[in-house]
Design a protein that fits this description.
The protein is 46% helix and 25% strand. One of its GO terms (biological process) is rRNA 5'-end processing.
Length: 138
């Protein structure tokens, strides 16, 4: 059973997918979106869901450090709800606090240039979110 992991921002969605056993997460790509224009990248997500035979989705929920949910978290909750309605798949929200920072540290330790980091940070953050979710289940 493959699981899709998403790191949802205002302009991009980082995408990761699990292996068939649900043990490891691999970053796939970053999809350009536009929340204001209600362009959520669902056409591309549909292709990915079909290609990888995804059975469930994990969406990162950016909580504040004190555990509360702010405007960005609310936007992710709405995105997850719309995703569930559109694709008829179970969607789980996962606390993603510090996932982008963890992804940034990984890229910095690998000495990836700032320009290249910007291109891959979202899909790596999606991988971190999904891997943390998978680890909690195994």
């Amino acid at each position: 059973m493959r699981i899709l992991g998403l790191d949802v921002g205002t302009k991009t969605v980082g995408v990761a997918v699990s292996d068939e056993m649900g043990w490891t997460a691999q970053g796939l790509e970053t999809i350009q979106i536009n929340e204001e224009k209600k362009q959520f990248g669902f056409n591309r997500l549909k292709e990915i869901i079909e290609e990888y035979q995804v059975e469930s989705v994990v969406v990162g929920l950016p909580k504040n450090m004190n555990g509360t949910i702010g405007p960005r978290g609310e936007a992710c909750q709405k995105y997850a709800e719309l995703l569930s309605e559109t694709f008829q798949l179970p969607v789980q929200l996962w606390d993603e606090r510090l996932s982008t920072m963890a992804a940034e540290r990984i890229l910095l330790s690998a000495d990836v240039s700032r320009k290249k980091r910007k291109k891959v940070i979202d899909k790596l953050a999606a991988s971190v979110i999904l891997q943390n979710y998978l680890d909690s289940k195994n």
